[in-house]
């Protein structure tokens, strides 16, 4: 097996990501010592990994995205249903055109959606999610970010309250991408908190088109507050519909929004 000093750039970068899987950060000097390379080479490795959306560079080194990007809901884990969320996000991104003004909902699905917008040009992102705003600011050079005002919800990293609703009431978007905690044919899309229901409804009302991003693991589940009905939407993006629950619900709706099944 080759020593770390003999590793190719790809192998060295893989080694760096393994390091960051166990530790919250890595410094340029750590890389220099570990791999016996110059500071210039170490920085090039970090630049390459950042361009791929795998880490975020900070002064003197880098931090892991999965550790540095605090998620808006602490009960949501960035590593839960990753494949489903990435597939939904990638499909949702195909619905975005260059120049669009987007509303991106709070939470991990919205976060993965923001990560899928790397190739979009001259877009504007409206969000109340501090993690999404932070990611877009550092990693989406062709995106402008509008962060809604309001109070940071205790123990979370999203903005809430009357000021948030007031800010959103003055804005209009081309497309809104929202998520939910559950979907039931009899109750629509539901969420745990009353404010979440109110702001999601306003996201959809103040956008030309509205899209729901939800994995099928949330089908036939109901939370406390209804945030949307099928007829409020232009499209629903799912990772699958194995039991035909969403298909049947759309067929019985008035507006028949388009169902996008992520591959």
TrEMBL record:
Keyword Secreted assigned: no
Species whose genome carries this gene: Collinsella aerofaciens
Chain segments annotated as coiled-coil in the UniProt record: none
Alphabetical UniProt keywords: Transcription, Transcription regulation
PROSITE patterns membership: HTH_DEOR_2
Domain of life: Bacteria
Protein name: DeoR family transcriptional regulator
Matching InterPro entries: Carb_Metab_HTH_regulators, DeoR-like_C, DeoR_HTH, NagB/RpiA_transferase-like, WH-like_DNA-bd_sf, WH_DNA-bd_sf
Domain (HTH deoR-type): residue spans on this chain: 9-64
GO terms of molecular function: DNA-binding transcription factor activity
Pfam families assigned: DeoRC, HTH_DeoR
Matching SMART domains: DeoRC, HTH_DEOR
């Amino acid at each position: 097996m080759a020593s770390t000093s003999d590793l190719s750039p790809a192998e060295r970068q893989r080694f760096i990501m393994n390091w960051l899987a166990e530790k919250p950060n890595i410094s340029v000097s750590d890389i220099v010592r570990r791999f016996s390379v110059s500071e210039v080479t170490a920085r090039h490795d970090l630049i390459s990994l950042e361009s791929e959306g795998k880490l975020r560079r900070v002064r003197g080194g880098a931090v892991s995205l999965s550790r540095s990007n605090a998620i808006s809901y602490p009960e949501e884990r960035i590593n839960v249903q990753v494949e489903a969320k990435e597939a939904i996000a990638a499909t949702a991104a195909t619905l975005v055109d260059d120049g669009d003004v987007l509303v991106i909902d709070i939470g991990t699905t919205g976060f993965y959606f923001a990560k899928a917008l790397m190739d979009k040009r001259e877009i504007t992102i409206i969000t109340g999610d501090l993690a999404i705003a932070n990611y877009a600011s550092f990693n989406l050079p062709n995106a402008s970010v509008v962060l809604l005002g309001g109070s940071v919800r205790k123990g979370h990293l999203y903005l809430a309250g009357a000021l948030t609703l007031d800010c959103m009431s003055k804005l209009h978007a081309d497309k809104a991408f929202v998520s939910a905690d559950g979907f039931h044919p009899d109750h629509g899309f539901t969420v745990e908190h009353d404010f979440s229901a109110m702001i999601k409804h306003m996201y959809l009302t103040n956008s030309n088109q509205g899209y729901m991003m939800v994995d099928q693991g949330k089908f036939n589940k109901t939370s406390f507050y209804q945030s949307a009905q099928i007829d409020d939407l232009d499209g629903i993006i799912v990772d699958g519909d194995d039991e035909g629950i969403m298909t049947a619900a759309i067929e019985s709706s008035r507006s028949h929004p388009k169902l996008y099944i992520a591959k």
